[in-house]
Structure formats: structure tokens, C-alpha cells
Amino acid sequence: MAFGATFAALRHRNYRIWAIAGFVSVIGTWMQVLGVNWYVLARTGSATSMGFAILLQAVPTLLLSVWGGALADRLPAKPLLIAAQGAHAALAASLAFVALTGTGGLPAIYVISLAAGAVSAIEGPVMGRWASTLVDRESLGNALALGSLTNSAGRILGMSAGAVVVAAVGPALLFVVNSVSFVAVVVALLLVRERERYAAGPEAEPAAVATDGGIRAGFRYLLGQPVVLVALGLSFVLGSLGRNYQVTMAAMSDGPLGGGAAGYGLLSTVFAVGTVLGALVAARSRRLGYGVLVGAGLLASVLQIVAGLAPGTLSFAAVILPIAAAAVVIDTTVGARAQLDTDYLMRGRVLAALAVTGSVSSAVGAPLLGWLSEHAGPRQTLVLAGAVAAVGTVVAGAALDGLRGRVLRGRVVEALAVPAVRRPIRRVASSAARVVRPAATLVRAVRPARTVVPAPRPSVGGGAGRRPVPRPAAGRPTPSLPSHLPHRPSVVHHATPLGTPVALLDGADSQDVTPTGR
């Protein structure tokens, strides 16, 4: 089966099975996300309460992901993943029971959200490390991008269908669909061929790292990776302030845009379409480097400010489309660099750190943005958060450039000095010289010869022993440059400012990072 560069990871049979199962599961997951958010918002009318539900799902990830990362590097993944799917299915069925009967009300929704977050905290690093073995190293970045594409396409279907279902019969059916969707993941886990999985070698098996120091070893390793730490810090800033749109979209739709549930469903669908476009861009990128990360962060932050000024639902939707695309490029780039630029033996713990970063950004950003939306207004919240995110992106970009040997400085200087830039200037100067030379020759031909008038004899000293100052002989012209030599203008070298955004969008800078442990 032939696949182009955009879908290179699909050449691997195991990944194809996993992608299909993931697509089914993601549809159910986003149905449940929409159902929970709208259930809480409809019962309370408060964006802060909705942010609190998101916080409860994020807190367990913050506390337990490091343990999940250690388990991912130590224990066989398949039994853990099958057990996690069963737990997710049971929790989704519990949500459906609460929504249908009203038993427990909002407290029950909060408890179930907390439990779902705990399962995801353990499952996330295990699944990330295991899924990375379904393709070879060269296809890993493309597989991550296609994973974003699967999530985005599933989000479109899940949000679109979910908006129709929740308006017609309520959120309970959404939770039932999500519960059933986890069966597809279990089937995929059973169909994957172990002999076709990829790993770094026999030493990379979980049993080989049973005495490597566990969680503390992971922290020590990350402290020795400053570039990865800065990338995670930037991911936190952009995730907390720049992309908690499940809160701000609901607040804008319910507030100044006046779109209600239908408007929220439309915005969610548009956002999902943008994530598909971003996933396609990331999949086609041969290298997802730190320049891409900073450029996408700046783009998303500036557009977020514009979104806060949008007058209506359609204009707001038009702005969040490229924001969603940039968000996927950011997430895919951070995930790719976190895995490609770190040791395979530490991959589970690095992915756990990435999960912790995401959970902290949700834990901080969702309630904060919800509170600001209620007290300062949704528009003001978007503008303020976008401005802070833009400043944080610039600071992180400068730090990354310094840590990586001023790659950006070198690229700016190189871009300003390439022969392709100098050649047109030389052509213009040469053409001008060819036009000027014949004209100068013609003027000399028609101009009469001038007689040099002898100057008076100046004297030096004014007495005996005076020496005459040499003067030109009568009728002899003053020496000049030969007419066939071209004029050479002086060249002034100007200092150029550093840090211009034009070079930040070049994803090829990832070739300057040498992955460790390969």
C-alpha cells in the first residue's frame, strides 16, 4: 500500500489499526467533553463551575502522571492499557446514569471527573510510550501529526454530532456512546503484532530499567535538558492562557456573541476544522523544530487578541480557525521534540512531564479564564491572555536561541548575506555602468581640450636656496583615471537587528539538535 509523505506512518500495519481505533474512541471522547461542559453550564450558568470540572480532571494528572511515567518505563504496557479502557468505559456509563436519573447531581459529575482524571494520569504516559513503538524513528513525527489529525477529525464529528444530540435528547446519550467507543481500543490492542513493534533495542524493554531510580531519575534527567525544559515552559504558557477555548468559547457564545448552545456548537466545530488543517500542516513538515514552535506560538497569541475584538459569531469563528491550526502545530512540535530529543529509556517519564505540563496549564488556566470572563468580561480576558502569551513566547524564543548556540542569529545573518540577495544588486550596478560608460566617452570626444594655465611660482622660505614647487608642463593635461576602468562605489555594511520573526517559522532548525541515546 503506497502512502505519500503526509501519511507516511500509515505504511505500518500496527499504526493503521491503532489509528482507526483511536479515531472511534476520540469521537466518543469529544462527545463526552461537550456533554459534561454543557451539562455543568446549563445547571449552574457559571463558566467558573465549568472550569472547576475541568480542574478536577487535571489535578490527578498533576499528582499521578509521574507515577504513570515510571510504570510506563517499567511494566508491560498492554495489560495496563486494557484495564484503563475498562475503567474509562465504566466511568462514562456512570455519567450517563447521573444525567438520566439526576442521582448525585453536580457533586457526582465532579467525582466522576476526578476519577476519570486519575485513570488518564496513569494511562497517558503508558499509552504514549507504547504507541511510539508502532512506527520507526523516521516516521515518529509524522505519526504524532497524524494522531493530531485523528483527534481533530474525531473532534469535528464528535462535537458536531454531540451538539445535535445534546440539543435534541440531552447529554446522557453522549456518555453512552463514549462508553461503547472504548471497545475499539481494546480490540486494537489485541490485534497489534508484537513482532512488528519498534524499540531502541533489547535494553529498552521495561525490565531493563527496573533499577534506574524511578521518578527521581526522571527529574534528574530533565534538569539536564534545558532546551526541553524551556519548550515545556512555553507549552504551559500557551496552554494555560492561549488555548483554554472550551472555557472562553462558551463564555463568548453565552455572553457578548449571544450564540447560545447552537453558537457554541458552531464554534466548537470550526475550531475542530482548524485543528484538522493544523494537523495536515504538521504532517507535511519534514522537521518540526523549535523555530516552528515559537512562530506558531506568536501567531496564536496575536490572533487571540484579535478574537477578543471580534464583533460577531462568524468573525470570531474566522479568527479561531487559524488559532486552532497553530495550536495543533504547537502540541505536535512539543510532543515530537520531547520524544526525539530525549533518551528512549526515559521516554515514559518525559511524556509524564509533558502530561503534567498540560494538566497544570488546565488547572491554572481554566478556572482563571473562567473567573476573568465573569468579572472582567470574555473580550477583555482574551485580549489580556493573548498579550501575556505573546510576551512569554518572545522570551522563550530568545532563551531557546541562546541555549541552542544562537541558531536564529546565524539564520538571520545568513538570510541577509546569501548570493541570491547580492546578485540582483550586482546586475543593477553592472547595467548602470554599461549605460554610463558610452555617455562619458561621448562627452570626452566632443569636449575641446583645455589648456592648463601655469600657476604662479610659489616660494618656500623667501630667500636664497629657494626651491620651485613642481607644476605641470604647459599644454599637458592633468593625469586622470583611464576611462575604461569602471567606477567602484564604496560599500557600507549596516548592522541588522536580531530576533525578527521571519526566521522563526523555519522548521528546519531541528536538524541542529542531536538526539541523545540513539
From TrEMBL:
Location within or outside the cell: Cell membrane
Chain segments annotated as transmembrane:
17-41, 47-68, 80-102, 172-192, 221-241, 261-283, 290-310, 316-338, 350-370, 382-403
Gene3D superfamilies attached here? MFS general substrate transporter like domains
PROSITE patterns reported in the protein's UniProt record:
MFS
Q: Report if keyword Transmembrane is assigned.
A: yes
For bias type Low complexity, the affected ranges are 472-484
Region labeled Disordered — which residues?
453-518
Task: Give one Pfam family, short name only.
Answer: MFS_3
Predominant localisation class: membrane
The segment(s) forming the Major facilitator superfamily (MFS) profile domain are 1-196
Its membrane topology: Multi-pass membrane protein
User: Keywords for this entry?
Assistant: Cell membrane, Membrane, Transmembrane, Transmembrane helix, Transport
Transport keyword on record? yes
Q: What is this protein called?
A: MFS transporter
The major lineage groups are: Bacteria, Bacillati, Actinomycetota, Actinomycetes, Micromonosporales
